[in-house]
Write a structure and sequence with these properties.
4-stranded parallel beta sheet, homodimer, DNA-binding, about 45% helix, 12 strands, elongated
DNA sequence: TCATTTTATGAAACCGTTTACATCTGCAGC
DNA sequence: GCTGCAGATGTAAACGGTTTCATAAAATGA
């Protein structure tokens, strides 16, 4: 692999000139540039990015640190990050699949010197001091942080608002006996959604403790498992709010299999609005979460910070979560008599 | 940000010693090491990875180049790549969302010097010479290449085999009038699946031209669109084979909406076995594609190459694609009389 | 024609590491 | 009291670029 010196020698110029040619400096005459380019091509030369970033202190790379995720949220988020980054010719250094704590510290250290900034998803308590440390070196943008970190911008999904909107909608439909299938413990999105669920009930003067809260892990199977509890319950809840679509899908499937019709016998709501939510049977009422937009915003924010000469005030952007009404919820009055809940 | 020199000065040693401490060299006495570590901590020092890789020529990073993808395949693939890489403490430099050609060349050049090897998904004709060029610098592993490239190992999904197995199964069930919803033009997976479909028919002595082939793009909506053509067709095909699950889901949804029951009135097959395929109504018969395993294998292969001292023979690994039979296909005899096809 | 400015180029320091090699110290062996 | 050797450390040259500053050449203005 040819170096800049070999190209310089071949073209009969100095390394400075070659360097200038490859960074499109205007301080090189046209024919010199051409000569250099020709030599470079012959030698199959291309600047070594690592060496370049060592001396310029810019890497044109954004570090991304994610916990071990799965599902469509992850892939949409990545697409958003990805697209926006490549749009601006930035690369992405990815490090995921870690559980927090020292893990995260090691990973972010390995990134040091190779990234211009770091985007971090859902840092938990254990990662907070890592964030603080990284922040001294490069700008950090947080996604859905559990709590704001001094000096870090953040982009958040309005999980809480979305959940509140769902419950308000259900209350309007006359439901008073609600079940909730929660997401995994320790997951910020899951917790915010649950908080939204509980507080909405409280605000409406209902006792959240009386609502049926079932454990879940954001996977389809958790919805299936929840269904058995729900079906066995008397009086049976009139609606089930699953903390994400995957679980809602599992739930709907199990209910259908048990001969329980949605929404005639029981209503179901999800959260996320995954691509196929509209193609379910019945089409799923859910909350639209623009994961792709979340990623896009995070990258934009990062690029803004990188471009800015001086530090700006801490910015917190919120990606709205809008209710997407389809056909999986009906009004309570429409419920079959036999299954009608003894609400209020 | 402190450099190795400052730490050396603070600890009263040379930079060589500091370097040795941070690379766990045994050539440092215990108390010197301790002293160095203490100074480093005080100064909040951590080695600069870019500088490190400049002198060691190792980056501990694998480059990944993907076309602009969406859907569960992408996210599963990424998870496989990701997990295996972090398991071995490798990082991932991602560059995606490009369409091939000069785009790919530029992106891979930007990676030069920052990666130990490159994993590339579905390189098309336009990218072949980029691959050839990159290969001279770092090892390359190809995923689902359209054609093998001299000197590059590859991992492939048995798309063709999977499609053949589907058709064989359908023929066994007595179907003779098949429809196919294709994937996007130019997509290798899509094309291999279609080839499998066509050739199976041919082998069975059926005329592939007579089969109904509809265009698609791997999105749910394409399945919906296909349904209108299929329902209008007389005689109506007894089964629809969608080139991926997303389209199969769109299709099932549209058929249901049109009052056409699956599998009583028409059978449906997908491809991919996405997480929720088993929770559809009816559960979808499909082909299991282990995208996660594909990614895992690719990383393993790459790490093997990186560890190997000398070049080994070109390896080609195939990830099998097994038929996953659920409930969306029935035997032709079971079809309702009125809709029975005039097959054979 | 000469001083002045502009433009193109080169020399060399620098970015933050690693590592081959040199050096120093202390100790065992004779 | 040497020699030889092992272990711990230091020196300095890479690694492959960029960039400041100096300089040479060309263009400009008087």
């Amino acid at each position: 692999m040819a170096t800049i010196r070999e190209v310089a020698r071949a073209a009969g110029v100095s390394t400075a000139t070659v360097s200038r040619v490859f960074s499109n400096s205007p301080l090189v005459s046209a024919d010199t540039a051409e000569r250099v380019l020709k030599s470079a091509q012959q030698l199959d030369y291309w600047p070594n990015s690592a060496a370049r970033s060592l001396s310029t202190h810019r890497t044109h790379t954004i570090g991304i640190m994610l916990p071990d995720l799965f599902g469509e949220f992850y892939s949409d988020l990545m697409r958003g990050l990805d697209r926006e980054a490549s749009l601006h010719e930035y690369q992405i250094l990815l490090s995921s699949s870690h559980s927090g704590g020292s893990d995260v510290l090691a990973a972010s250290r390995a990134m040091l010197g190779r990234i211009d900034g770091l985007i971090m998803l859902a840092p938990d308590e254990k990662s907070i001091d890592t964030v603080e440390r990284v922040r001294r070196r490069v700008p950090v943008v947080l996604l859905n942080p559990r709590q704001p970190v001094e000096g870090c911008h953040s982009v958040e999904v309005a999980n809480y608002d979305g959940a509140r909107r769902v419950v308000e909608y259900l209350l309007e439909l006359g439901h008073r006996d609600l079940a909730f299938v929660a997401g995994p413990e320790g997951n910020v999105d899951a917790e915010e959604r649950r908080r939204g669920f509980r507080e909405s009930l409280q605000v409406a003067g209902l006792d959240p403790d009386q609502a049926l809260e079932l454990p879940g892990d954001f996977r389809e199977i958790a919805g299936v498992e929840a269904s058995t509890v729900i079906l066995a319950r008397h009086p049976r809840p009139t609606v089930v709010f699953a903390a994400n679509d995957a679980m809602a899908i599992g739930l709907q499937s199990a209910l259908h299999r048990a001969g329980c019709r949605v929404p005639q016998d029981i209503s179901v709501v999800g959260f996320d609005n995954v691509a196929m939510a509209g193609y379910l049977n019945p089409p799923l009422t859910t909350v639209n979460v623009d994961a792709c937009g979340l990623g896009r915003e995070a990258v934009r924010m990062m690029l803004d910070v990188l471009r800015a000469s001086e530090e700006s005030a801490q910015i917190r952007r919120v990606i709205p979560a809008a209710l997407k009404i389809r056909e999986s919820c009906s009004a309570v009055e429409a419920l079959r008599a036999g299954h009608k809940s003894n609400s209020n």
